[in-house]
Amino acid sequence: MKHINLSFAACGFLGIYHLGAAAAFHRHGKKLLRNVKAFAGASAGSLAAVVLLAVPENIEKCKHFACGFAEEVRRLNFGAVTPGYDFMKTLREGIESILPSDVHEIAENRLYVSVTNTKSGENHLVSNFPSREDLIKVLLASSFIPVYAGIKPVEFKGQKWVDGGLTNGLPILPVGRTVTISPFSGRLDICPQDKGRVDLYVKLAKQDMMVSI
C-alpha cells in the first residue's frame, strides 16, 4: 500500500466528529492504520490526531472529556470569555489526563501539528517534540483562538503561537497521499455529505468547504 497520511481539520468543539471518525478507524480500520505513516491536524484536529496515533484506547475517554468541556463552556454566561474562566487550563488538564507519559516519543516525526506564529503570521507544522511538555504546549498553541481562549498566546521555544487553524486548517503533507477528515462538507475524503440547490465552495485557511444554498 502506498504512503498514507491522515489529516484532521480545525473545527473547535465540532472535534467530536473527529473522535467519531477516529473510533471508526480504530474499530474497523486497523489494517489501514498500520500503513499510515503520519498524522496531522490543526486545533481540535491535532488533538484527535495525537489520540488516534498514540493512545487510541483512550478515544472514549477523550469523547467524554470533549462533551463535558463543551457543556461546561455552554453553561457559562458568556461562554469561554466569561470573566474568571480559564479555557486553556481546562484544556490542558484534559490533555494531560488522556496522553501517556511517552507520547512525545510516539509522536516524534509522525505527528504534524499546525500552529501560527504571532510575530510573522506564518504557519508552521511542528513534528519535533523533545518532551511531553513540549508536545502539550504545541497542542495547546494549535487550539489557542485569540480572545476566545485567552489573551496571552502559548509560548514555545522562545516564541508565541496561536491557533493553527487561522493559517492552515487542514495540513496536507508533502509525501504520500493525505486522507482528509473534516466535520464541514466540502472537497474532502471524509466529511458530511450536504446537498443544496446551489453548492458554493469557499477556501478558508487552506480548507475547502461547501456552502449550500
From TrEMBL:
<dbReference type="InterPro" id="IPR033562">
    <property type="entry name" value="PLPL"/>
</dbReference>
<feature type="transmembrane region" description="Helical">
    <location>
        <begin position="38"/>
        <end position="55"/>
    </location>
</feature>
<dbReference type="Pfam" id="PF01734">
    <property type="entry name" value="Patatin"/>
</dbReference>
<dbReference type="GO" id="GO:0005811">
    <property type="term" value="C:lipid droplet"/>
</dbReference>
<dbReference type="GO" id="GO:0004806">
    <property type="term" value="F:triacylglycerol lipase activity"/>
</dbReference>
<dbReference type="InterPro" id="IPR002641">
    <property type="entry name" value="PNPLA_dom"/>
</dbReference>
<feature type="short sequence motif" description="GXSXG">
    <location>
        <begin position="41"/>
        <end position="45"/>
    </location>
</feature>
<keyword id="KW-0472">Membrane</keyword>
<dbReference type="GO" id="GO:0016020">
    <property type="term" value="C:membrane"/>
</dbReference>
<feature type="active site" description="Proton acceptor">
    <location>
        <position position="163"/>
    </location>
</feature>
<dbReference type="InterPro" id="IPR016035">
    <property type="entry name" value="Acyl_Trfase/lysoPLipase"/>
</dbReference>
<feature type="domain" description="PNPLA">
    <location>
        <begin position="6"/>
        <end position="176"/>
    </location>
</feature>
<keyword id="KW-0443">Lipid metabolism</keyword>
<feature type="short sequence motif" description="DGA/G">
    <location>
        <begin position="163"/>
        <end position="165"/>
    </location>
</feature>
<dbReference type="GO" id="GO:0005737">
    <property type="term" value="C:cytoplasm"/>
</dbReference>
<protein>
    <submittedName>
        <fullName>PLPL4 protein</fullName>
    </submittedName>
</protein>
<feature type="active site" description="Nucleophile">
    <location>
        <position position="43"/>
    </location>
</feature>
<keyword id="KW-1133">Transmembrane helix</keyword>
<keyword id="KW-0378">Hydrolase</keyword>
<dbReference type="GO" id="GO:0019433">
    <property type="term" value="P:triglyceride catabolic process"/>
</dbReference>
<keyword id="KW-0442">Lipid degradation</keyword>
<keyword id="KW-0812">Transmembrane</keyword>
<dbReference type="GO" id="GO:0055088">
    <property type="term" value="P:lipid homeostasis"/>
</dbReference>
